[in-house]
Amino acid sequence: GSFLIGMAVEAGTSCEFASPKFYALCGLGGIVSCGTTHTAIVPLDLVKCRLQVDKTKYGSLAQGFRVTFKEEGLRGLGRGWAPTFFGYSLQGLGKFGFYEVFKHTYSGMLSEENAFLWRTSVYLAASASAEFFADIMLCPMEALKVRIQTMPGFANTLREGFPKMVAAEGFTGFYKGIVPLWCRQIPYTVMKFACFERTVEALYNYVVPKPRSQCSKPEQLVVTFAAGYIAGVFRAIVSHPPDTIVSKLNK
User: Fold this and answer.
1) Mean of the pLDDT values across residues 207-225?
2) Looking at the domain assignment, is residue 93 inside a domain?
3) Which pTM was predicted?
């Protein structure tokens, strides 16, 4: 429906909605946002994974950092950065690119009125569909990352770990955790996009004192960040239990 098109792109922008350039930019945004942010928090992710698979040794977040630093030094806290960067860059490409593809496709199946009335359902269906394929792109690097981070002596780098894993289990080993990954990431992404979209609406309707069209780019960016933060809290809650399962399966 044209309602969702209007929400996605403002009039006067240089990029036509649903054009190849539009989807390419969405995918590029996903690569930059997911690849860089996940890589930036690799030390925290490493300690989290180790806590999930060996609570006795690492005890708490603070103790996990102390033990890791004592045993491996500062460099050890960056273990697994390469599969994290490449894996989540691919996932971001699929997540953000396919989300817009599916949102446009599903809304186009409805009348303009129903696209508005059922917009939350469109967000839910589009985000779930996008994440299904994005996780297929992520899963091999996620499996390798967890092994590098939680199995002492397995490998120190992507270049070392990839052929070892292929030799030991074949390519099917990279997808051993795909089902729990879907269970973790699909609810995460569904909550992220649906909550984000509706939070943006709510902020403009009830908090921002003027229409979106009258807001400057910096003002719109503040609203976007606020909505993203709120959505992030909820998506973290729903994804934590299956995240633990993914770490244990890939150990």
Assistant:
1) 92
2) yes
3) 0.84
